[in-house]
Design goal:
By secondary structure, this protein is of the alpha+beta class. 46% of the residues lie in helices and 22% in strands. The chain has seven helices and ten strands. A five-stranded antiparallel sheet has the order 2-1-5-4-3, with helices on both faces. Strands 6-10-9-8-7 form a five-stranded antiparallel sheet. The chain is elongated. It starts with a helix and ends in a 14-residue tail after the last helix.
Length: 294
């Protein structure tokens, strides 16, 4: 049972590590989006566009190839009353920009005038997006904000494939189902430090609920590792065989030491004495042998 206890502990550490890696990658993606928001949102040209939208700005900055290069699926400009001044979508469902705005409007904190960018995840129809919002101001950050800039990236297959490559597990995002968290003999719950991971031992599947940009538990990160059982059985037997061989080696070494000290050494001593008597023809020679062996 100690071996299987080790496997369980080892698996728990692997699950925690996988989610640490996933959290880190998502965090880095959000930081990248935040930097992009600052480049565009704290810029004189964008500030002027909010006050007076022009075709020149649109032609210069909002072409599809430009958005494709910066991996943006939707860019939205709002005034201080949260009205859409302009939006541009890139290879995404037409009109979805309004959905993103509606999602952000569910939490007033998203529009707090803090001059700090805010990013987070949003789900819509089983698709998942990273959304960022920033108060628009001038390049020197001195002018009073006259609106908001929203940028949206999709959690696409490329990002998921990268996570899978790093963690070696299949990763999916899905809409959270709270009822899945229930007592079950096949389920274990692991405290990751920033959330509870549900682990289905039979299916080698895990699930962790994460908060969206509004602070709601609407999104779940899931993993499945179909090769884990085979890997750990192999690891178990390798570990067992290694420890068994080490034990055999220790026993052989111990036995060799005992035989040499208490048997062979005495035999060699007696043999040498007999050879000496044979050479010298002196039958008065004596030999001292410790112990009570005859």
């Amino acid at each position: 049972s100690s071996y299987f206890g080790y496997i369980n502990r080892n698996q728990e550490q692997r699950i925690k590590k996988n989610y640490e890696v996933m959290d880190y990658i998502i965090s880095e993606e959000e930081k990248n989006l935040q930097s992009l928001l600052v480049d565009w949102g704290q810029w004189d040209e964008t500030y002027k566009f909010i006050s007076n939208p022009t075709e020149e700005y649109i032609e210069s900055n909002l072409q599809e190839d430009t958005l494709e290069n910066i991996k943006i699926k939707s860019i939205i400009y709002l005034d201080n009353d949260k009205n859409i001044i302009h939006h541009k979508e890139n290879n995404i469902q037409e009109g979805i920009s309004k959905i993103f705005v509606e999602k952000l409007l569910e939490n007033d904190k998203n529009f707090a005038k803090t001059t700090a960018q805010k990013t987070g995840l949003v789900s819509w129809l089983e698709n998942f997006y990273m959304v960022g919002i920033l108060d628009v101001t001038t390049s020197d950050k001195q002018a009073k904000s006259n609106g908001y800039l929203i940028m949206v990236r999709q959690v696409d297959e490329k990002l998921l494939n990268y996570i899978e490559k790093v963690t070696s597990v299949n990763v999916k995002f899905k809409e959270a189902q709270v009822e899945k968290f229930k007592q079950n003999n096949n389920m274990e719950y692991i405290d990751s430090g920033n959330g509870i991971i549900a682990y289905d031992k039979d299916a080698s599947e895990t699930e962790k609920i994460i908060k969206d940009i509004n602070g709601e538990d609407t999104i779940a990160m899931t993993t499945i590792n179909t090769s884990y059982n085979e890997e750990n059985i192999t690891h178990f037997f390798r570990s067992f065989i290694f420890q068994f061989l080490v034990l055999i080696a220790v026993i052989i070494a111990f036995n060799t030491y005992i035989i040499n000290k208490y048997i062979l050494k005495r035999v060699f001593t007696l043999t040498n004495f007999m050879d000496k008597v044979s050479e010298t023809k002196d039958i008065t020679l004596t030999i001292k042998m410790t112990g009570k062996d005859e």
